[in-house]
Design brief:
The protein has one domain. Helices cover 61% and strands 2% of the residues. The chain is globular, with a radius of gyration of 18 Å. A hairpin with a 6-residue loop joins strand 1 and strand 2. A two-stranded antiparallel sheet has the order 1-2. Helix 2 runs antiparallel to helix 6, helix 2 packs across helix 11 and helix 4 packs parallel to helix 15. It is mainly alpha-helical and 280 residues long. It contains 15 helices and two strands. The relative contact order is 0.19.
């Protein structure tokens, strides 16, 4: 066996992160992250996401895939690069004028929790057979990802109960702002070049589906209507079924080949699958 990296085939993370609905879960996490006024202000003031939306999303996806399926050295190198960027960047609190450091533990924890809670919640809702014990195990495993960006793993929620308690604690700080409205509009606009009409038409309903799978309390803060529940359920399951119908050799090669390289390194038994969860 080669280097399994930070997770490996015997983790929930390995199989959950390969699910097709991670695309929708990623969009959902961005809507959720936008509700923290200081976190979203720091992003809006420092990121070029409006000039290069597709590139920004691809870089985020590449980081998650590298830290999940890459070697230990690849994951640590990617994390060091992210920590270096966070150390350098500063923002300004829109209300107080105080400086915002992007590597503040409070903000890093918010981004982490919003991300992994969205990943698990959306993929599970779409049909991945994830038990409560496996959900707890996933949050515990994701403390490794939190440590990569500079957090103390002991301070990071490691179960569904701890995650729920975290969101209950932080919810009074969350609100709709001009910056969150900017993110909402951004995630509802086409990402591909203007000439790529099929890609843009395909993305537009997915963008709102990503919003519609937010927790009820988060949608109330955003204050925007969502798709009706039957549409959300059909959309999630339909997207997942379509993704799973794509042969593994193609699905795990584009847009990045992280899974394929991991299988080449570790053997065919490392191929992610929902069925493998039953043995964990």
């Amino acid at each position: 066996m080669g280097d399994e990296g930070l997770f490996g085939p015997r983790t929930v993370t390995w199989h959950l992160h390969a699910d097709p609905t991670m695309w929708i879960a990623g969009i959902c996490s961005l809507f959720l992250q936008a509700l923290h006024p200081r976190a979203v202000a720091a992003v809006v003031q420092n990121s070029r996401f409006q000039d290069d939306p597709l590139g920004r999303l691809m870089r985020t996806g590449d980081f998650v895939a590298t830290t999940t399926y890459g070697t230990t050295a690849e994951a640590e190198k990617a994390a060091a690069r992210v920590r270096g960027v966070h150390r350098k960047l500063r923002g300004t609190d829109r209300e107080t004028g105080a400086e915002i450091r992007l590597d503040e533990p409070e903000l890093l924890l918010w981004v982490h929790c919003a991300e992994v809670a969205s990943f698990a919640g959306v993929v599970r809702r779409a049909g991945l057979p994830l038990s409560t014990a496996q959900l707890d195990r996933y949050f515990d495993e994701q403390r490794r990802s939190a440590e990569l960006v500079g957090l103390d793993p002991a301070e990071v929620p490691g179960s569904s109960r701890e995650m729920a308690a975290y969101f209950a604690r932080v919810r009074p700080q969350l609100r709709r702002t001009d910056d969150s409205d900017l993110i909402y509009r951004f995630l509802h606009r086409p990402f591909a070049p203007w000439w790529s009409l099929p890609a843009n038409l395909g993305y537009l309903p997915l963008g709102h589906l990503g919003y519609s799978v937010l927790p009820d309390w988060a949608r109330r803060i955003h204050g925007r209507p969502a798709y009706p529940p039957p549409v959300v359920a059909a959309g999630l399951r339909g997207f997942r079924a379509a993704g799973l119908a794509v042969p593994d050799q193609l699905r795990f090669r584009y847009p990045g080949d992280h899974v394929q390289r991991a299988v080449h390194r570790l053997g065919a038994a490392a191929l992610p699958s929902a069925g493998a969860l039953s043995g964990l």
